[in-house]
């Protein structure tokens, strides 16, 4: 089925439906250290990559987690960021993902592997706690739950100006009409 195109609003790469400006969600394509590699270096060193996991033979493993960013207009931008993990933690997360461990054991510590506007590189490498949100009844994408770093705590707990957060490739989410019917988009 073809979905009606809305000007300036991209289609979901997974299902082809228009994304919802009322619930802005977007994934950063790579952890910054992997994005900084040349295409040839990625071909040589990335052993596995999916929507949820990147494994390399030279800089370790990364797991995607959702970072909720409260906005001043009442929405929350949800950013799929990458968390760099120590080898033993990476193995633990993979075991949970494969069903070898209960989904409730998806709690882990790592370091944020992306810079993000408007905070830039100040948050790159910040320690974060991630896991399933309280009350999760099944395995799903982990969330950034907290950090000892003041910048990450502020991202999670303060409200941020829409025009400061929804920049670059995600400016489409500025095309938001609070009176429009919700078009929830989740996988």
Total helical elements: 5
**What percent of the residues sit in helical stretches (DSSP H or I)?**
10-25%
Radius of gyration from the alpha-carbon trace, in angstroms: 17 Å
Cα separation of the termini = 17 Å
The fraction of residues in strands falls at: 15-25%
Shape: globular
Quaternary state of the chains: single chain
Low-confidence stretches: 1-6
Major pleated sheet: 8 strands, mixed
Key descriptive features of the protein:
disordered N terminus, alpha+beta
Structural account:
The protein is of the alpha+beta class. It is 19% helix and 25% strand. It contains five helices and eight strands. It has helices at residues 32-35, 39-45, 87-98, 150-157, 162-165, and strands at residues 25-27, 46-49, 53-56, 61-70, 76-85, 107-112, 127-131, 143-146. Strands 1, 2, 3, 4, 5, 6, 7 and 8 form an eight-stranded mixed sheet that branches. A hairpin with a 3-residue loop joins strand 2 (46-49) and strand 3. Mean pLDDT is 89; it is low at 1-6.
């Amino acid at each position: 089925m073809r979905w009606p195109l809305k000007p300036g609003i991209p289609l979901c790469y997974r299902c082809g439906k228009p994304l919802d400006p009322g619930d802005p969600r977007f994934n950063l394509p790579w952890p910054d250290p992997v994005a900084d590699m040349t295409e040839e270096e990625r071909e040589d060193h990335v052993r596995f990559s999916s929507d949820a996991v990147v494994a390399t033979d030279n800089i370790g493993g990364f797991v995607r987690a959702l970072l909720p960013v409260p906005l001043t207009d009442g929405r929350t931008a949800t950013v799929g960021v990458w968390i760099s993990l120590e080898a033993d933690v990476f193995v633990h997360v993979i075991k949970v993902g494969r069903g070898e461990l209960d989904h409730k054991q998806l709690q882990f510590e790592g370091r944020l592997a992306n810079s993000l506007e408007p905070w830039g590189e100040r948050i790159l490498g910040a320690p974060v706690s991630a896991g399933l949100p309280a009350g999760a009844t099944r395995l799903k994408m982990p969330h950034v739950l907290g950090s000892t770093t003041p910048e990450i705590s502020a991202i999670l707990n303060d409200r941020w100006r829409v025009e400061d957060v929804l920049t670059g490739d995600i400016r489409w989410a500025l095309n938001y009409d609070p009176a429009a019917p919700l078009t929830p988009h989740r996988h």
